[in-house]
Amino acid sequence: MTLDAVLDQVDGDLESAVARLLELLRIPSISTDPAYKEDCDAAADWLVDDLQSIGFDVSKRPTPGHPMVVAHAEGEGPHVMFYGHYDVQPVDPLSLWSNPPFEPRLEDTDNGPVIRGRGSSDDKGQLMTFVEACRAWKVVHGTLPAKISLFFEGEEESGSPSLVPFMQENADELKADIALICDTGLFGDSTPAIVTRLRGLLGEELTITGPSKDLHSGMYGGIARNPIRVLAKIIASLHDASGRIMVPDFYDGVEELPADIAQQWNDLGFDNSEFLGEVGLGVPAGEDGRTGLEMIWSRPTCEVNGISGGYQGDGFKTVLPSQASAKISFRLVPGQDPLKLRESFRAFVQAQLPEDCTVEFKGHGAGSASEMSTDHPAFEQARAALSDEWPNPATFVGCGGSIPIAGHFKDILGMDAMLIGFGKDDDQIHSPNEKYDLSSFHKGIRSWVRVLDAMSK
Amino acid sequence: MTLDAVLDQVDGDLESAVARLLELLRIPSISTDPAYKEDCDAAADWLVDDLQSIGFDVSKRPTPGHPMVVAHAEGEGPHVMFYGHYDVQPVDPLSLWSNPPFEPRLEDTDNGPVIRGRGSSDDKGQLMTFVEACRAWKVVHGTLPAKISLFFEGEEESGSPSLVPFMQENADELKADIALICDTGLFGDSTPAIVTRLRGLLGEELTITGPSKDLHSGMYGGIARNPIRVLAKIIASLHDASGRIMVPDFYDGVEELPADIAQQWNDLGFDNSEFLGEVGLGVPAGEDGRTGLEMIWSRPTCEVNGISGGYQGDGFKTVLPSQASAKISFRLVPGQDPLKLRESFRAFVQAQLPEDCTVEFKGHGAGSASEMSTDHPAFEQARAALSDEWPNPATFVGCGGSIPIAGHFKDILGMDAMLIGFGKDDDQIHSPNEKYDLSSFHKGIRSWVRVLDAMSK
């Protein structure tokens, strides 16, 4: 039977598929750091070559930033658009990696074999699950089960500055019946999940300047304004004792979770202590009176991602620094307007600034949250197909991360997006020692074969 | 007349004196950074050679850290011990230097010629004023006006870890009738000042650990503890709205300034706006109801000298960091016990730590404040001598900086210490573009000639 033949092909070709992924992982395509611009380009070229070898009509498309890769292949059935990103996060602190981040390898662990390296899970490994599914189908049938388009960007980890303009300029080409996105995870270890709710992201960088130059804390300590203290006070004022965010109007438009969704989530039996215990924590740090899943899936957040000021080297320097800066990001939920909140945050900071300090803001990504409508038949077809591959039935979940592309497919192209991914909570994405379970990769490929098969019926 | 002959010798030899200072300034003797250990040693060697050329019996003395330089010369009159330090502060941010910090040069400025380079004022330039005074006297008279000992350390900018043990082990050799220290400044531009009150210093470094590794703020944001936020909250809690420091028992033993001293200080006509205006500030940031001179001379402080955590590179990284750290220093006044306050500060931090965070402390220098007794005749002799050299009469002042050596001379060797220096507020010590006015250097040498002459009578 045709499905089994393709699944067998996937199983038999797994070793080569891993080898191909390791090739892609060796390219240090860190999009946020200009030093790696050529590597991002090289990763795009690698994808172009690989997709050509499968028979896609593929092109590398320039943008003001890193290039897009767009590919098309004819086929029977619906027109499916698949999205992934080939760029990766920075790797610091390098010293915490057990193996160089861009010398990926297949490693045996107590939990089975894993593919270790930056991007193995987020998102190179995940996007290759779909590419390998197409390759296997093509090998067995000489054709694909649907008209398939692929759309890979190289700026997802740096706010996707070129994404919206590119989608607008190429709307006709990129429009399809439905979008598939592989940048999310399983629920737990073996429950396939289809994400129907995503948080948005707003990034802000602020630099506070006090004295016009660094000062000696002996000569000026006590009388001169210290920008580190000013910054710390502002950061401390962002949350109240209950964990509520104090930026004015921050919760405007934020609605309580619908009862049925809340029920589904409670049925998942999410264990706060277990989830936090894996990363050395024990106490949920979010708003009082919220469940763990609400804190990460349906409630907005404000976090400090980086802070810097004064002397940070070895030893001690009794300096009163001229400047102090912080990178702050907000996870947003449906109903919140990123640009309105950016203004609101900046006004909140300005209002607390001592009269002889100045602040400079630098805006980073601003993406709205999104909620999928599950009316499109593909959602139920995929749920059934995934349930066939995995030990547990598939479920609709939320995702704390920000994948603005899902909202863009809806807003710009009028397409529903279905987010299916095979990452695990312990993949350490955005951290040292990122990995992707070989089983995630293998069953991920098989899952897409099944989903494509189901959608083509 | 003998004094004039020596002053003429100083004037005539100024060019060579500057050349000698530039040689010493070219040695990057940054004591706090292990990378410069050999340079500190080289600076000590340079001093040994120079003092030998004057006729001092000099030796470089090893310590667990950087070496001490001790020199002696016989002479009529009292036994005078002179202290200075040949180590310098780090130079970052390098980009803000108009000229490389260790390629010193004589520069013409609107305020007259200056010697520009790291250490030009703090403290190589200042210590050389005394060395040059001795050299001139020796040239003219073939002898010195007093029995003179010199004591130079190379760890003053890194907490002087070897100083106390060395002074204890060599107490007999280092004891003299009085100690002279040249590591302070003029009051304003032309008023010679003898410091009779010095603040102490307590340095603490703390690192707060939350999650066991860096986390993705999408997956964990909202539920996971963020150590940067914990650190910011603690820093914000160090002062209340009135600028008072909230560490328990912090003000134990702190006394109000004696009325006569307060009066002397008020008579100096210190202008807060002018003092702060020079560094781009306008509003005194210390405790409410205190004068500017109290804030920098007689009130204790708590300042953050450095803070670090999370992603600090270009662009943006949505990470929840595992750790955040800060370097915090306290300027202390007479009556405060540094070690007791260290414990009190650590308990204050511990008490605010969420249950799933840990903190690691690293103690840096801990030196008490000191108050000189001005009973020793040298104080009045010096005040008169300095008044002869400068346009304004000399005055007794306080100093916001920490020069623990003054207290050690009293505690360990039972000697009074007299602090006389020629630095200016705009010397930018501990900052980029440090300089020492040529007039400070020239009149500083002449001042020591006069002081030695007065003391020898």
UniProtKB/TrEMBL annotation, chains A, B:
Gene3D superfamilies: 3.30.70.360, Zn peptidases. GO terms for biological process: proteolysis. It holds the Pfam family Peptidase_M20. Residues 198-356 form the Peptidase M20 dimerisation domain. One of its GO terms (molecular function) is peptidase activity. InterPro entries: Cyt/Met_Dipeptidase (IPR051458), Peptidase_M20 (IPR002933), Peptidase_M20_dimer (IPR011650). Keywords: Hydrolase, Metal-binding, Protease. The keyword Protease applies. This is Acetylornithine deacetylase/succinyl-diaminopimelate desuccinylase-like protein.
